[in-house]
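Students often ask why we bother predicting the structure of a whole assembly rather than each chain alone. The short answer is interfaces. A chain on its own may look different once its partners are present, and contacts between molecules only exist in the joint model. In this exercise we take two input lines together and write out one structure for the complete complex. Read the inputs first and try to guess which parts will touch.
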Amino acid sequence: MTLQEEVENLIVRVAMGDRVAFARLYDRTSAKLFGVCLRVLDDRAEAEEVLQEVFVTVWNKADSYRINGYSPMTWLITVTRNRAVDRRRALRRPPEPIETADLLPDSTPGPEATAMAQSESRRINECFDELPRARAHLVRRAYFEGDSYADLAEATGINLNTLRTWLRRSLIALRECLSR
Amino acid sequence: MSAHNSKGPQGPDGDDPRVTAAEFAMGLLSDAEARAVEARMAEDRALFDEVVAWQEHLADLMLDEVEEVTPSPQLRKRIEARLFRSDAPPVWKQVLPYGLGGAAAALVLWLAVSSGLVTPDEGAIEADLVAELTPTPEGGGLVINAAVDTELGAVQVVRLAGDAPENRVFELWLIAGEAAPVSLGVLDDAADRAVIPLPQDVMAELPGAVLAVSDEPPGGSPTGAPTGSVLAAGPLTPS
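Now the answer. The structure tokens for the assembled complex follow.
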């Protein structure tokens, strides 16, 4: 059984109220999902609060998982990332500044992309590598830190409409790469 | 700042469904815009698929990005305390009252109908435990009697009322104590009675256990656990 199959099986049993399956699902996925919380929040106490909420949601919403169309790990990661981003936004941390130098047009892969190229690369990472480094950085900030367009405009000092256009063009470029 | 446009996300490329789906998946839309996209997704299968595709790719990105970090050992206890302390019973245990409430009546009914329905020529079954599975609110009137012969290691089920919906089957489950439901098999919709062999390792668990019937796709639950509604349930009591 692959991890996906195992997790799917466990979620279905959790939907039936099976506490043993819930404990096993926690064992199999909590370290990964805690990694997601930490990546977004960078704060262990906050991350544990969010992880707790995530597993409460999983217990209560497992029966709706089957109709949402996601693969099981995607559902868990999406719930976790969104919860963590909600928490990060509620904390109202000012967006970390992005150095203007990082945003100069530059087609060379950035350090993040280079590091990832060495790991087992998934399609999305290959597609990030095709984006100019600065654009890739903005998309990553939006996803991993939950920065809004307004946050990114503030962090860079770039006009909001310009920034939105950059980011949307980057999303289209990513999508075109992903569907190749 | 561009003028607000009630039709949706404003600005260049804002009406490209690939962009809308990505913005929705990443949480870049305002609450009102996100609600509008959710409403569209219910009607627009292509947009729905586009959002799912983005979520899958973004989850891949996340999986590659993060390391596994073990949370503190107390966290799991805190979660379980929060969820289970309040005695909220698991869904499949909520069927218990149906069985227990009707236990006495079930026994009487069983005695009344068994002589007529479980005819002696099928009498290979000598029941020492019986159950009347009465319908749950979703049960559509399904009533099944079950008789267990622990010596023989088999359960005879007799369907008294109710038919499986089209392209669905009934699956019989044993729920013993805190353990997860164990499938005893799929009931043949064409026959209103069947004898099903029981796994050896459940025999000791039978007294006081609950038999339940769920609604499943053809061939039975693909997961090994009930996936559809519980339609009827009842406890096994000595005959």
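Check your guess against this: Residues 1-8, 93-122 of chain B have pLDDT under 50 and may be disordered.
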